[in-house]
Structure to design on (1130 residues):
C-alpha cells in the first residue's frame, strides 16, 4: 500500500491568488492512499523542502506529489529533497498548477477545480510509480580518432596530452591528410609542412598515441564509454615494424607508372613507394595494381634489395578489435568531382587544374619542384585565371548549395604567391562574392588587390575553350557590365569541397546522423557543436561542415576537451527512465528494433520452462539501459504490449487518462 | 442543439512531449496566454510514446477531443520519434474518419519550446472546434464511464 | 482439377516416404465435402484423409509458428496468399524457415459455402471442380466465380516463397479491384459511414475467431487479454462497444497484414473485417507509396519507417463529411 504525501505550493501569490490552495490540499487529502496533505508558501525554499523531508520521515511516505510550478522548473529540486530523506527520487510526481492553471485562468473556482484534477492525476500516476535507479556503466579510458588529418592529429594530441590513450585510424598509408599537400597557409603564408609535420612527428613519438594507417573501421558495437570497434588493417605488403623507410626499394622498383595520388596524379611513382618524404609512419607500401611480383609473380627486386627483409608479398588484411570509451570522427573532405562542370574544360584541357592541384604545382616538394609551369607543355604561364565558386553556392543541382568557405582565401593566397614569385604574370580572379570573415583575413585579401595588383572580376564564367596554344575564358564582368574574353595560359578552378565519401559508411556504423550534404550533424548547432546526437561520438573538423585550418584546429581541441571530460569519469550515470520488454509477452518480432533511434535493442535466445520438465528457446528483445534514452518509440510499435517504459508506463499514462476523464 | 452545446463543457486531453510542447505550454503559462481550463495536459517523453489506445481510451472515458503535441518534424529530441508518431496518427485519424467519427475531434500539432503563443492559439482553436462539435457520442463507452 | 489433388497426394506421400520431412501440414476431409480443416499428417496411411480442393481456404502459415519449432522438418502446401503471410512471419522471426519445406500449390480461388446456398442448390453433397465452373451434386453447373470467396475475386498474388511449385494450370488473377468497397465507403457521408460500421461492428460477439486465425496476430498473449494493458474489458453494455477492439486490432496489424482475408472468412457474424485492414493498406499505399506486406521482406514496414516529408495527420483528404 502506498503512503502518499501531497504538498501544495502557493508560490507566494503566483498560485494562491487564483487557486484556493487550502481547498486543493483539503480535497486531495481525501484521495485514497494520501496520508498527509499540506500547503506552504514556497515549497521550493529550504523550509518548504524541509517540510517534505520531515513528512517523508514522520509519515513513512512511499511517494510524494508536489502541486507547484512546472516539473521542468523544480522536479530536480524535489527529487533531491526526496532522496535526502531516504525516498527514491523517482517516487515523486509534480502537478503543474502554476503554468497550466494559476497563470492562465482568472476564475478562482474554475482554476481550483482544475488544480484538484491535476493533483488527482498526479496521485493516480504516482500510485503506479516504482523506485527507479539510474544504472551505471564503466568508461574505457581510451579514445579512437577516425581520420589522421590536421583535425584528427590535433584531437589525438590533446587527448594524449591529458594522459589518455588514443588510436588514430587513417585510411591512407600516412597521416597528414589534405593539409600535408598544401604549399603555404593563409593568412600568414607560413609553409604547411613546417607547421604540420612537427605535429605528425609528435603523434608518432607520443607513447599514448597508436597510429594505424592504411586501416579502416569495419564494425562498431557498444555504446558511450564501451565501444568495441573492429579495424581492418589493409595489407601494405611491407612489414611496418621492420621497414626503416630507407627508400632503397623505391629506387630499385622497375614499375614506375602508377599515378602519384599525393601529387594529385600530376606525376607518377614506383609500385613500391613512400607517400612523401615526411610521411608518418615513414614506411613503404606496395600498390598491388602496379607491382609486377604481385601481378604476375615476376620481379621481387625490392625484396632482394631490402636491407631489413621487410617486404612481405603474402601479407593479408588483418582485423584488430579494440575497445574505446569515446570516438572522434575527423574524416575530413575532398574536392568534388568536376564531371558536372564541362563548361570549364577540366577533363578536356590539361591546363585547367583544380586549386589542390595548383597547390602541388607551387609546392617545392611537388611534381615541378615548386617551379610554376603548366601541365601541357611545362611552359611558365604568363596569364593565369582563377575561377571561384566552382560547385559552391550552387542551387542548380550540379554542385553543392553551401559555401565551401575556404576558397576565397586560398585563391587570394595563390594569386599573391604567383605575383610574388613571378611578378610579370597577370592574375585574374572571377568571383561571386569575396568572403573574408576571420582574423586578418580581409587585410590579407586587400593586400592581394592593393599590393599585388591581382585583377578581381565580379562575375561568372560561361565557358573555357581553347584557341591555338591558349585557353580563352569567357565571362561576364558585372560591375562594368561587359562580356570578357580573357586569353589565359592556365585556368585554376576553386572546386567546392565535400565530406570524404568514407563518412557515410562510418556514420552508419556509428548510428549517428548525417545531413543532406553528407556532413555529420552536431547534437545542437550552437550549444553542442562538437558532439554528435549519439552519446560518445564527437565531431572534429570538416566532417561537420566546411572549415579552414585555424577553425579546424580550434574545433579539434574543443572536441578533445569533450572527450577528456568523458574519459575522466570512472562511471557514467545512465538514464533511469528506460524501456524494457516483458519476456513472457515478447514474440521477438523485431519491430521495436527497427524504430529504436539508438540501437539499444538486441535479441537474445532465451530458454523458458514450460512445465513438466520441458523447455522452449524463444527469441526475446533485450534493451541496453546504458544506451536507451527513453523516448518510448518501441512501446507503441510493439503489438503485444511487451515493451514498456519505466516512469511513463502504459499503466501510468492510462491512469492519468482515467483520472482526467473521471471528472 | 446550439443551446445544449453551450451548456456542455467539453473535455480535452492534450498529450505533450516533454522537450518541446510541454515547454511550449510552460511558456504560454509564463506569458499569461490563456486557454480554456477544460484542456488537461498529460506529459509524455516524446510524441512517439503515445499509443493509439491512450487516445481511444480517453474518448471511451468521455473526452470530447484529443490533441497530440510534439516537436516540429526534424527537431525531435530523440531525432526521429515524431516522424513515427506522425505516421501512426495519420493512419489512426484516417481510420476514425473512415468509421464515421468526426475527424475534427483528433489533432496533431507541432509546438516548439519557443511557441507559447502558438500553444495557446492551438488550444483555443481546438477547444472552439470541439465546443461546436458537441459531446462525443460516437466513441464513448458506457462500460468505461463511472 | 482433380489432377491437382492427385498430384498433391503423390507429392505429400513422396515427401513423407523419402524421409525428406517427417510430417506434412495440409488439409483433411470432414463430415461433409465443405468442412475441410488444417491437419498434420505423420504417415502415408494418414494421408488417406488428406484433401486439396476449393474448400481448402484456411491459411496454413500461422500453424507453422508452432510446427516449425518441433523436431524434424515439416512439409507444407501453401497457396499464393499463404506464402505472403509465411514470408511476413519469416521477417518477424516467428517461424524457423530451415524446418519447413514449402510446396507452393496451385490455387484457382477458394469457395464460400454461403455463396453455394445463395445460388439455390440446397445441400451441397459433392462438388466437381473445373477451372471456370463447378458441378454440384453431379447435376448443377455453376460459374466458379459465383461461389468464390470475395478475397479470391480480387486476388492477384503469386507464390513469393517456396522450395518447389506444384502448379498444373496457370493461376487466373481476380479482375475485381480490392479497394472498391473501401472507396465506396469513403464516398459516403460520415453519418452513413458511422451507420454502416455501427451496424456491422454491433454484430460482434467477441468470439476472437478473427484474432485467432489471423497470421499477423501471433502474440503469446494478446493485449486484449492482458489486464496490464488497461484495454481488456468487461462484457459490453452497448452493442457498439467492441469497436475499440477492432480499431486496435487493425492498427496492430497495419503494415503487416497481407490481406489474406481469413478474418472475414471465419467471422461467424459475417462482419466484413477485411474492410478495416484494406483501409490501412489503401492509406499506406496512398500516403507512403505502394507496399505489400509479405512480398519483399527486405523492405522496411511502413510503420517502422518514415520520410521527412510525410503527410501531416491533419491534412489527409479522408472521406466525405
Amino acid at each position: 500500500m502506498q503512503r502518499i504525501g501531497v504538498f501544495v505550493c502557493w508560490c507566494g501569490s503566483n498560485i494562491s491568488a487564483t487557486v484556493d490552495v487550502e481547498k486543493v490540499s483539503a480535497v486531495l487529502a481525501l484521495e485514497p492512499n494520501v496520508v498527509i496533505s499540506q500547503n506552504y508558501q514556497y515549497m521550493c525554499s529550504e523550509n518548504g523542502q524541509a517540510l517534505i523531508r520531515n513528512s517523508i520521515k514522520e509519515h513513512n511516505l512511499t511517494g510524494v506529489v508536489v502541486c507547484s510550478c512546472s516539473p521542468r522548473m523544480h522536479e530536480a529540486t524535489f527529487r533531491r529533497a526526496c532522496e535526502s530523506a531516504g525516498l527514491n527520487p523517482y517516487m515523486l510526481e509534480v502537478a503543474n498548477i502554476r503554468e497550466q492553471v494559476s497563470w492562465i485562468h482568472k476564475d478562482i473556482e474554475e482554476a481550483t477545480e482544475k488544480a484538484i484534477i491535476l493533483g488527482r492525476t498526479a496521485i493516480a500516476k504516482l500510485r503506479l510509480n516504482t523506485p527507479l535507479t539510474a544504472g551505471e556503466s564503466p568508461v574505457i579510458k581510451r579514445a579512437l580518432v577516425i581520420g589522421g588529418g590536421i583535425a584528427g592529429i590535433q584531437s589525438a594530441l590533446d587527448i594524449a596530452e591529458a594522459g589518455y590513450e588514443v588510436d588514430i585510424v587513417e585510411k591512407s598509408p600516412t597521416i597528414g591528410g589534405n593539409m600535408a599537400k598544401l604549399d603555404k597557409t593563409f593568412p600568414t603564408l607560413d609553409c604547411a609542412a613546417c607547421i604540420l609535420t612537427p605535429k605528425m612527428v609528435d603523434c608518432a613519438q607520443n607513447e599514448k598515441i597508436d597510429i594505424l594507417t592504411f586501416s579502416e573501421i569495419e564494425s562498431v558495437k557498444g555504446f558511450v564509454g564501451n565501444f568495441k570497434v573492429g579495424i581492418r588493417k589493409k595489407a601494405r605488403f611491407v612489414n611496418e615494424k621492420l621497414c626503416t623507410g630507407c627508400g632503397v626499394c623505391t629506387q630499385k622498383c622497375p614499375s614506375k607508372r602508377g599515378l602519384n595520388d599525393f601529387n594529385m596524379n600530376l606525376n607518377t611513382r614506383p609500385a613500391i613507394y613512400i607517400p612523401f618524404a615526411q610521411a608518418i609512419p615513414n614506411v613503404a607500401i606496395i600498390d598491388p595494381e602496379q607491382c609486377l611480383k604481385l601481378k604476375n609473380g615476376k620481379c621481387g627486386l625490392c625484396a632482394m634489395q631490402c636491407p631489413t627483409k621487410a617486404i612481405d608479398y603474402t601479407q593479408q588484411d588483418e582485423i584488430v578489435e579494440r575497445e574505446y570509451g569515446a570516438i572522434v570522427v575527423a574524416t575530413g573532405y575532398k574536392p568534388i568531382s568536376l564531371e558536372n562542370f564541362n563548361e570549364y574544360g577540366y577533363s578536356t584541357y590539361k591546363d585547367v587544374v583544380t586549386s589542390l592541384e595548383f597547390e602541388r604545382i607551387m609546392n617545392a616538394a611537388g611534381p615541378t619542384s615548386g617551379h610554376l609551369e603548366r601541365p601541357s607543355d611545362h611552359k611558365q604561364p604568363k596569364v593565369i585565371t582563377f575561377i571561384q565558386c566552382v560547385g559552391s553556392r550552387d542551387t542548380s543541382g550540379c554542385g553543392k548549395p553551401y559555401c565551401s568557405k575556404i576558397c576565397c582565401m586560398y585563391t587570394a593566397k595563390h594569386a599573391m604567391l604567383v605575383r610574388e614569385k613571378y611578378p610579370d604574370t597577370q592574375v585574374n580572379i572571377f568571383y561571386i562574392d569575396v568572403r573574408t570573415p576571420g582574423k586578418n583575413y580581409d587585410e590579407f585579401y586587400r593586400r592581394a588587390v592593393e599590393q599585388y595588383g591581382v585583377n578581381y572580376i565580379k562575375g561568372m564564367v560561361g565557358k573555357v575553350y581553347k584557341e591555338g596554344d591558349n585557353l580563352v575564358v569567357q565571362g561576364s564582368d558585372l560591375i562594368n557590365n561587359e562580356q570578357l574574353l580573357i586569353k589565359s595560359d592556365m585556368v585554376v578552378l576553386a572546386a567546392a569541397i565535400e565530406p570524404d565519401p568514407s563518412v557515410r559508411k562510418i556514420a552508419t556504423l556509428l548510428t549517428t546522423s548525417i545531413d543532406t550534404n553528407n556532413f555529420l550533424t552536431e547534437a545542437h548547432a550552437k550549444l553542442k557543436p562538437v558532439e554528435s546526437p549519439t552519446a560518445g561520438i564527437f565531431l572534429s573538423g570538416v566532417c561537420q561542415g566546411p572549415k579552414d585550418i585555424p577553425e579546424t584546429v580550434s574545433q579539434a581541441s574543443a572536441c578533445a576537451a569533450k572527450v577528456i571530460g568523458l574519459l575522466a569519469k570512472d562511471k557514467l550515470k545512465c538514464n533511469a527512465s528506460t524501456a524494457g520488454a516483458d519476456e513472457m509477452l515478447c514474440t521477438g518480432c523485431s519491430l521495436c528494433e527497427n524504430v529504436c533511434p539508438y540501437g539499444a535493442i538486441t535479441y537474445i535466445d532465451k530458454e523458458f520452462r514450460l512445465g513438466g520438465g520441458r523447455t522452449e528457446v524463444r527469441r526475446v528483445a533485450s534493451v541496453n539501459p546504458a544506451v536507451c534514452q527513453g523516448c518510448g518509440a518501441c512501446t507503441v510499435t510493439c503489438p503485444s504490449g511487451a515493451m514498456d517504459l519505466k516512469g511513463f508506463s502504459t499503466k501510468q499514462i492510462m491512469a492519468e487518462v482515467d483520472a482526467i476523464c473521471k471528472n | 442543439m446550439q443551446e445544449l452545446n453551450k451548456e456542455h463543457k467539453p473535455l480535452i486531453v492534450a498529450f505533450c512531449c516533454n522537450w518541446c510542447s510541454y515547454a511550449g505550454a510552460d511558456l504560454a503559462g509564463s506569458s499569461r496566454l490563456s486557454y480554456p481550463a477544460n484542456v488537461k495536459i498529460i506529459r509524455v517523453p516524446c510524441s512517439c510514446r503515445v499509443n493509439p489506445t491512450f487516445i481511444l481510451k480517453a474518448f471511451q472515458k468521455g473526452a470530447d477531443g484529443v490533441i497530440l503535441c510534439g516537436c516540429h518534424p526534424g527537431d525531435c529530441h530523440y531525432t526521429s520519434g515524431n516522424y513515427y508518431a506522425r505516421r501512426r496518427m495519420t493512419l489512426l485519424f484516417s481510420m476514425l474518419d473512415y468509421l464515421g467519427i468526426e475527424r475534427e475531434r483528433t489533432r496533431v500539432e507541432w509546438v516548439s519550446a519557443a511557441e507559447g503563443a502558438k500553444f495557446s492559439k492551438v488550444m483555443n482553436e481546438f477547444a472552439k472546434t470541439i465546443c461546436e462539435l458537441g459531446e462525443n457520442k460516437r466513441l464513448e463507452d458506457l462500460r468505461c464511464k463511472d | 482439377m482433380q489432377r491437382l489433388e492427385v498430384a498433391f497426394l503423390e507429392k505429400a506421400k513422396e515427401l513423407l516416404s523419402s524421409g525428406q520431412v517427417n510430417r506434412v501440414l495440409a488439409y483433411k476431409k470432414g463430415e461433409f465435402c465443405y468442412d475441410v480443416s488444417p491437419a498434420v499428417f505423420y504417415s502415408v496411411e494418414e494421408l488417406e484423409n488428406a484433401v486439396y480442393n476449393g474448400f481448402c481456404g484456411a491459411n496454413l502459415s500461422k500453424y507453422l509458428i508452432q510446427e516449425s519449432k518441433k523436431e524434424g522438418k515439416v512439409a507444407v502446401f501453401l497457396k499464393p496468399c499463404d506464402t505472403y503471410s509465411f514470408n511476413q512471419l519469416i521477417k518477424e522471426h516467428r517461424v524457423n524457415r530451415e524446418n519447413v519445406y514449402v510446396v507452393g500449390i496451385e490455387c484457382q480461388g477458394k469457395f464460400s459455402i454461403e455463396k453455394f446456398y445463395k445460388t439455390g442448390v440446397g445441400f451441397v453433397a459433392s462438388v466437381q471442380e473445373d477451372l471456370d465452373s463447378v458441378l454440384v451434386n453431379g447435376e448443377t453447373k455453376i460459374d466458379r466465380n459465383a461461389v468464390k470467396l470475395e478475397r479470391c475475386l480480387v486476388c492477384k498474388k503469386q507464390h513469393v516463397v517456396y522450395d518447389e511449385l506444384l502448379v498444373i494450370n496457370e493461376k487466373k488473377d481476380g479482375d475485381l479491384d480490392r479497394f472498391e468497397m473501401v472507396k465506396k465507403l469513403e464516398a459516403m457521408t460520415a453519418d452513413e459511414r458511422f451507420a454502416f460500421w455501427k451496424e456491422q461492428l454491433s454484430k460482434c460477439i467477441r468470439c476472437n475467431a478473427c484474432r485467432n486465425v489471423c497470421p499477423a496476430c501471433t502474440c503469446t498473449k494478446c493485449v486484449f487479454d492482458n489486464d496490464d494493458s488497461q484495454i481488456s474489458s468487461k462484457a459490453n453494455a452497448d452493442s457498439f462497444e467492441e469497436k475499440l477492439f477492432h480499431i486496435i486490432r487493425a492498427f496492430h496489424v497495419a503494415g503487416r497484414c497481407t490481406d489474406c482475408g481469413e478474418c472475414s472468412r471465419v467471422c461467424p457474424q459475417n462482419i466484413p473485417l477485411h474492410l478495416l485492414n484494406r483501409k490501412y493498406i489503401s492509406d499506406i499505399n496512398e500516403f507512403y507509396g505502394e507496399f505489400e506486406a509479405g512480398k519483399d521482406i527486405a523492405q522496411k514496414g511502413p510503420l517502422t519507417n518514415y520520410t521527412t516529408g510525410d503527410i501531416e495527420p491533419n491534412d489527409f483528404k479522408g472521406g466525405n463529411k
